[in-house]
Amino acid sequence: MSWQEYTVFLLESIGIYNRDLMLHYYRKIKKFMIWYKNKYNVDLENIPDTAECKLENQKKAISWRRIARAIEKNDFYMRRLSFGQTKNDDRELMELIHKWDNLLNRKTRTDDKTLQKVIQENWK
Known about the structure:
Elements: H1 3-17, H2 19-40, H3 53-57, H4 64-72, H5 87-99, H6 113-122
Helix pairs in contact: 1-2, 1-4
């Protein structure tokens, strides 16, 4: 399976259980691709499956592996794709938490300290 196929698989798998979260990731990935298209003229069909690991880790290269890894890590804010935390993201996260309390709540395990902080501060 290619990294592109794996990325689609991950998105579809998330969508089975939580369509809203899948659409959140989809919007972020789409913005990421549009930014690369505008800045570096990289079309969707020209995105490589992998890039040099050093460049991916420095967030200087686009690849399907980088996108898939962001999804794998449940990177809600998509920091691995160079996004920052926004108020809209925080609001969307809280809406998801309240809507999907059985899957995502204040007891949710995550390594993302910012995500943990937002959940704890906003839990009602």
